Amino acid sequence: MRDIENLDVKDDSNDLELNERLSRMKLFSQLRTTEKKLESIGRQKSRVKWFKYGDSNSKFFHSAIRWRRRKNEIKGVEVDNQWCEESEVVRREAMKLFPRRFTAIQDIRVSLGSVEFKTLPEEVSLGMTSCFTEEEVKEAVWQCEGSKSPSPDGFNFIFIKNSWDILKLDILAVVLAFQETG
User: Fold this and answer.
1) pLDDT in tens, 141-169
2) H/E element, 79
3) What is the tens place of the pLDDT at every residue in 60-88?
4) Largest distance between two CA atoms of the chain
5) Can you tell me the distance from the alpha carbon of 138 to that of 164, in angstroms, rounded to the nearest whole number?
6) Terminal Cα-to-Cα distance of the chain (whole angstroms)
7) Is the separation of the CB atoms in 176 and 132 below 8 Å?
8) Whose CA is closest to 157, among 169, 144, 140?
9) Torsions phi, psi of 79, nearest 5?
């Protein structure tokens, strides 16, 4: 980790040579392998503990779960003043119940009388839904810290800023596509 941190500091000042970049990539690979091994050891230790001490879910716990399951079970429904326990009829009646219960009623509306809310001027409202300009996107990119990247092999903002003339059309296309489609 210390070696990776030292190489990261050196990379922030753009002084990293090719062999150091390769060394950094190798260190990240070793770090991922080590993390996987530690995770595997943790899983093995938990299994050993489970075999040694058993399941902490006692007989009481399981009986409480069975009681709750029986209590919540729907055994039957009343259809046309007749009690019915056939599973297909119970299922069909349950399917009828939910749309009635969870459909919004259009007639009930909250009335606030003569309360007036502040609204934005129309030009500000339209500005919130208009397409981003190249200057706005560039300003947003330039406000981001330069040395952070989404992953060890991702592009950081120093790279994006230095390559702006090459990347700007692609970045603008992505931003506009997101704005149009969400």
Assistant:
1) 888 887 766 677 777 888 888 999 999 99
2) strand 77-79
3) 878 888 888 888 888 888 888 888 888 88
4) 84
5) 9
6) 39
7) yes
8) 144
9) -120, 120
